[in-house]
């Protein structure tokens, strides 16, 4: 279920994460069908909203190598 408090515009996400430019986000959105970002996007009318929790999951999936598991204490 989507929580409206987790939704942001392209400009808001770019402002919160300075390493991601608006142009980069728009490129990712344009190619969402092929890059796997589609589950993080909601389109209402002509506006695209980004689910912060889902884009974080997507970003985690972009790691070049998995994070090592910590041994149990």
What overall geometry do the principal axes of the alpha carbons give? globular
Helix/strand order, N-terminal first: EHHHEEH
Q: Quote the beta fraction.
A: 15-25%
What would you report as the Rg, rounded to the nearest angstrom?
14 Å
Distance between the termini: 34 Å
Helix content: 25-40%
**Biggest beta-sheet profile:** 3 strands, antiparallel
Overall average pLDDT: 92
Q: How are strands sequenced across the largest beta sheet?
A: 1-3-2
Q: Which stretches are poorly predicted, pLDDT < 50 over at least 5 residues? A: none
Q: Total strand count, please?
A: 3
Q: What's the number of helices? A: 4
Secondary-structure class: alpha+beta
Report on this model:
The chain is α+β, with helices and mostly antiparallel strands. The protein is 40% helix and 15% strand. Strands 1-3-2 form a 3-stranded antiparallel sheet. Strand 2 (41-44) and strand 3 form a beta hairpin. The chain starts with 6 loop residues before the first strand and ends in a 13-residue tail after the last helix. The relative contact order is 0.17. This is Helix-turn-helix domain-containing protein.
Properties at a glance:
4 helices, three-stranded antiparallel beta sheet, globular, alpha+beta, 73 residues
Lay out the secondary structure.
Elements: E1 7-8, H1 10-16, H2 22-30, H3 32-35, E2 41-44, E3 47-51, H4 52-60
Antiparallel strand pairs: 1-3, 2-3
């Amino acid at each position: 279920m989507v929580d409206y408090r987790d939704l942001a515009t392209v400009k808001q996400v770019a402002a919160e994460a300075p390493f991601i430019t608006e142009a980069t986000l728009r490129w990712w959105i344009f190619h969402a069908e092929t890059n796997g970002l589609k589950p993080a996007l909601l389109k209402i009318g002509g506006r695209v909203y980004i689910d912060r929790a889902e884009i974080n999951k997507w970003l985690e999936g972009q790691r070049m190598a998995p994070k090592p598991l910590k041994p149990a204490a």
